[in-house]
Amino acid sequence: MRILKKNDAIDVQLLQDGFIVLINKPQDWTSFDVVNKIRRTLKIKKVGHAGTLDPFATGLLIVGVGKGTKQLNQFTKLDKTYRAIIKLGVETDTYDRTGKIVKEADASLITREQVEQVLKQMQGEMFQLPPMFSAKKINGKPLYKLARKGKEIERKPQKVTVYQAKLLDWQAPLLTIELKVSKGTYIRSYAHDLGQALNTGAILQELVRTEIGEFSLTESFELPLFLEKWKQMVGQPA
């Protein structure tokens, strides 16, 4: 199965054989928006993705086209790396900047040493509670649909692994970290739990997925470029 990267040539044989393509998901697009755009441009029904990204997040999205959709399961199991900006001193109902503010606190006295100490503690195997505003399904219903109706239901903590939590920058109240995590880890929940550990509250301000397994964001197509190259290959107006 061919895995298309940004410098690879595109040919019509790909549709017959099926393929995987690495895409840099744009900000404010859902993962389904990307899938739907590719589906309409390539005029093929079978298109899917491995590993949902929130609309405000950007970064590596692995997309399967045609027979490539049958290979997506192998990618969902891979470890992932993110670059996250977390804002201390505020909490929202979604655990990120898109939600309604429910609490605020003063984080101006938090030091870099305190942040590094908590990050060190928040590595390894841990149990994480899936956020209500997530695509996780319970009894067949996505949690975010219940959350939008103001409903909160009991969720079971899930075991996840944070292999690395590296502080890249600290400019109060914002900290930038690199996280390498196992499948099923919610970065929004990690940000929330970090805020609880520091007694200030915290939200996920920005998120970029930089790696999935051995695949890197630096190898991915910008979505408009991929679509343009495809149109040029089949002779459609760009």
Describe this entry's structure for a reader:
The strands form three sheets. Strands 1, 2, 3, 4, 5, 8, 11, 12, 13, 14 and 15 form an eleven-stranded mixed beta sheet that branches. With 238 residues, this protein is of the alpha+beta class. The longest helix is centred in the first third of the chain and has 12 residues, at 31-42. It folds into two domains: 2-77 and 214-234, 2-Layer Sandwich (Pseudouridine synthase), CATH 3.30.2350.10; 80-212, Pseudouridine synthase (2-Layer Sandwich). The model has no long low-confidence stretch (mean pLDDT 90). It has seven helices and 15 strands. The relative contact order is 0.21. The radius of gyration is 19 Å and the shape is elongated. Helices cover 25% and strands 35% of the residues.
In short:
By secondary structure, the protein is α+β, with helices and mostly antiparallel strands. The protein has helices at residues 13-17, 31-42, 73-76, 112-121, 143-148, 187-197, 223-234, and strands at residues 2-4, 19-25, 47-50, 58-65, 80-88, 90-92, 101-104, 124-128, 137-138, 141-142, 158-171, 174-181, 202-212, 215-216, 221-222.
Short key terms for the protein model shown above:
238 residues; alpha+beta; Pseudouridine synthase; 11-stranded mixed beta sheet; two-stranded antiparallel sheet; 15 strands
Task: Return the CATH class of the largest domain.
Answer: Alpha Beta
The amount of beta strand, in percent, is 35-45%
Shape: elongated
**What sequence of helices (H) and strands (E) makes up the elements?**
EHEHEEHEEEHEEEHEEHEEEH
- In CATH, what is the homologous superfamily of the largest domain? Pseudouridine synthase
Question: Which structural class best describes the helix and strand composition?
Answer: alpha+beta
Low-confidence stretches at least 5 residues in length (pLDDT < 50)? Answer: none
Integer average pLDDT: 90
Q: Assign the CATH architecture of the largest domain.
A: 2-Layer Sandwich
The radius of gyration computed from the alpha-carbon positions, rounded to a whole number of angstroms, is 19 Å
CATH level 3 topology of the largest domain = Pseudouridine synthase
How many domains, in number, for the residues? 2
Major sheet description: 11 strands, mixed
End-to-end separation in angstroms reads 27 Å
Strands, count: 15
The level of helicity is 25-40%
Figure out the total of helices: 7
